[in-house]
Every structure is written in structure tokens, then in C-alpha cells.
Design goal:
122 residues; 3 helices; alpha+beta; 5 strands; five-stranded mixed β-barrel
């Protein structure tokens, strides 16, 4: 039964990637209650796995904690990212953070999702 939950999450992520590829972008409805992450950067993952974002998450009541998650999409120009489970609003990136190529992230994530979904079908 654990695979059913994983498969559902993967299918939801694939649907979001399809919407983004068609030009849809998250708006206030998705981002107003999203987690805020600042001083963030992107980490390489294991070969074939999605890249990870790491930073400091702030939420109410006033709390700050280290946040890390696999990202499936990002737009640092409009300050949002998507993990498998949630939207996040991006604050300032780390000064040393390398430039992000959203197309590379999207392409890698799409390939990873298809591979994971194929494994679950076997």
C-alpha cells in the first residue's frame, strides 16, 4: 500500500510539471500560504535524483528552521519553487549560490519522475 501513496504523489508532481510546461504559473492562491525559504542554495543529489534546495524556512509563529527538499521546478526570477509536496516562496539566495537553469531542473525532474513511475508499474 505504501507504493499507492508514493505513486499518487509522483502523479501529482507530473501533473504540475505538465501545467508549468503549458505556461501556467502559481499565483497568490498557491503562494500566499507557502513556506518562505531564505539564504537558500541548490544541492546536487544522487545521480538521477532531483536536485535539492536547502535554506532557512520561516513560518508563523516566528520560527526558523533548516529546510531541505527535492525540487521539481523553480523560478528564481519570480521567487517560487515546487517540491514534491508543496510550493515555497524564495527569499534571498546565498551569495555563493550558482546560477540556476530552470529548464535543466525541469528536464531532470521529468526524467526522474518517469523512471520512478515505471518502477512502480513493474
Amino acid at each position: 500500500m505504501a507504493h499507492a501513496i508514493d505513486r499518487k504523489r509522483l502523479l501529482e508532481a507530473a501533473a504540475i510539471l505538465d501545467l508549468l510546461a503549458a505556461g501556467w504559473r502559481p499565483g497568490n492562491g498557491e503562494l500566499d500560504s507557502a513556506r518562505y525559504v531564505e539564504n537558500w542554495g541548490i544541492l546536487q543529489s544522487q545521480r538521477g535524483a532531483p536536485l535539492r534546495i536547502i535554506g532557512f524556512a520561516r513560518s508563523l509563529p516566528v520560527r526558523c528552521r533548516i529546510f531541505t527538499a527535492a525540487i521539481i521546478a523553480i523560478d528564481d526570477a519570480t521567487n517560487w519553487a515546487r517540491t514534491l509536496d508543496e510550493w515555497i516562496v524564495l527569499g534571498e539566495a546565498l551569495d555563493e549560490a550558482p546560477a540556476i537553469d530552470a529548464a535543466v531542473i525541469r528536464h531532470g525532474t521529468t526524467a526522474w519522475l518517469h523512471g520512478e513511475l515505471n518502477c512502480l508499474q513493474v
